[in-house]
Amino acid sequence: MFGGKNYSLDEYMNECRDSIKYQKGIWYIIEHNHKLVSSIIVYSLPSLDNLLAIGLGSLATKHDERLRGYSSKLLQSIIEEYQKKLKISTFVLYAEINTKFYERFGFQAINQSLQKYNNATCMIRHIGYENFRQIEKFYAENSICYF
């Protein structure tokens, strides 16, 4: 099982490779013993008041490799690298799992009245901008269809 569905790794990778949505982003992976164990996609998003932003999607770990820290390591690495090298200050994602996982990395759920989807919670991690309400409204309106 991979990616939250009852897919084999090959089925999951084929679906992702064929997806127009997934082709719009940059893939990052973690391999262990020469096998893919975790992946994430990074998408470009519109900027708000010169604050650079990216969308994070499809963070997934192979079912039998979960609870070993792969997703945490991958997510933390992406945040650190994009902040340091590209000066990204805002990260947006849609959580299809318990939001507590993402809260550990500084993500906050946007106001319930701005949530667009029943099966996913839009969350934002930002630095250097004091008006969170303005950020959440902007990205709720501009993060169409999970990016």
CATH-level-2 architecture: 3-Layer(aba) Sandwich
Q: Output the CATH topology.
A: Aminopeptidase
Class of secondary structure makeup: alpha+beta
Total beta strands: 6
Could you state the oligomeric state of the chains shown? single chain
- Describe the strand arrangement of the main beta sheet, using strand numbers: 1-2-3-4-6-5
Helix content: 25-40%
> Which percent band covers the strand fraction?
25-35%
Average pLDDT across residues?
Answer: 84
What's the number of helices? 5
| CATH H level, superfamily name | Gcn5-related N-acetyltransferase (GNAT)
Q: What gyration radius follows from the Cα positions, in whole Å?
A: 15 Å
- The shape, in one word, is globular
Topology pattern, helix = H, strand = E: HHEEEHEHEEH
> Major beta sheet, specifics?
6 strands, mixed
Domain module tally: 1
Contiguous low-pLDDT stretches (5 residues minimum) are: none
What distance lies between the first and last C-alpha atoms, to the nearest angstrom?
24 Å
CATH top level is Alpha Beta
Write the SSE topology.
Blueprint (H helix, E strand, L loop, with lengths): L8 H10 L1 H4 L2 E7 L2 E10 L8 E9 L8 H17 L3 E6 L4 H4 L4 E2 L11 E6 L5 H11 L5
Describe this structure in words.
- This protein has 147 residues and is α+β, with helices and mostly antiparallel strands.
- It has a six-stranded mixed beta sheet, with helices on both faces.
- It has one domain: Aminopeptidase, CATH 3.40.630.
- It starts with 8 loop residues before the first helix and ends in a 5-residue tail after the last helix.
- The radius of gyration is 15 Å and the shape is globular.
- It contains five helices and six strands; from the N terminus they run ααβββαβαββα.
